[in-house]
Amino acid sequence: MAILPILIAPDPILKTKSERIDTIDESIRQLAADMFETMYNEEGIGLAAVQVGVLKRILVTDVTWRTREEMGDIESGEQYVLINPEIIEDSGDEHVYKEGCLSLPSQFSEVTRPSEVRVRYQDLDGKSQEQTFDGLLATCIQHEIDHLNGIIFVDHISSVKRDMILRKLTKQKRAGVFDHHEHDHVHGEHCNHG
Ligand SMILES: [Zn+2]
């Protein structure tokens, strides 16, 4: 297992559409394991492969992990690995949630999405699955599927606000703020990270 470096926006790779995975082999299973480790290390709840520079249609999520008080480490909750995910139906309503993203550290914005989605995907055994997700998991999975299509959450907000956030991140990147961000990232609100 390995902790992989996370790309920070703005980055042209984050705007690139990821490719379908045809063969689910050991390298994909290793990638999923590394993505979980990277996500937990950053106290996130979801991660798409493109965020670690791999342009393949795979995402991982766990919105129920907890910090073990005595150890200070993370105890995993319900883990999902979605390969080639497709939203085949949504509830059509407007649910607002304040989202964040591991690729946009410490930036949050309200995004409107359907509160429930039905998703078709393949699991790590290559089996086709169909499942309905609601609550935080629905928000998170839609956010991660966006990543696979080259979309980040600020693409859903006003261009004025988006430009402000991206300018701030550009400045911070230039100043080297994220060079050691695994040691000094801001805790709290971790539930919004994806
Ligand atoms: Zn994200």
Topology, please?
Elements: H1 26-41, E1 46-48, E2 58-61, E3 66-67, E4 74-75, E5 80-90, E6 95-101, E7 104-113, E8 116-122, E9 128-134, H2 135-148, H3 159-174, H4 181-184
Antiparallel strand pairs: 1-2, 2-5, 3-4, 5-8, 6-7, 8-9
This protein binds zinc ion.
Zinc ion binds at residues 101-103, 143, 147, 194.
Short account of what is shown:
By secondary structure, the protein is α+β, with helices and mostly antiparallel strands. It has one domain (12-192): Peptide Deformylase (Alpha-Beta Complex), CATH 3.90.45.10. It contains 4 helices and 9 strands.
Describe the structure.
By secondary structure, the chain is an alpha+beta fold. It has one domain: Alpha-Beta Complex (Peptide Deformylase), CATH 3.90.45. 26% of the residues lie in helices and 27% in strands. It has 4 helices and 9 strands; from the N terminus they run H-E-E-E-E-E-E-E-E-E-H-H-H. It has helices spanning 26-41, 135-148, 159-174, 181-184, and strands spanning 46-48, 58-61, 66-67, 74-75, 80-90, 95-101, 104-113, 116-122, 128-134. A 5-stranded antiparallel β-sheet has the order 1-2-5-8-9, with helices on both faces. Strand 3 (66-67) and strand 4 (74-75) form a beta hairpin. The longest helix has 16 residues, at 26-41. The model is unreliable at 183-191 (pLDDT under 50).
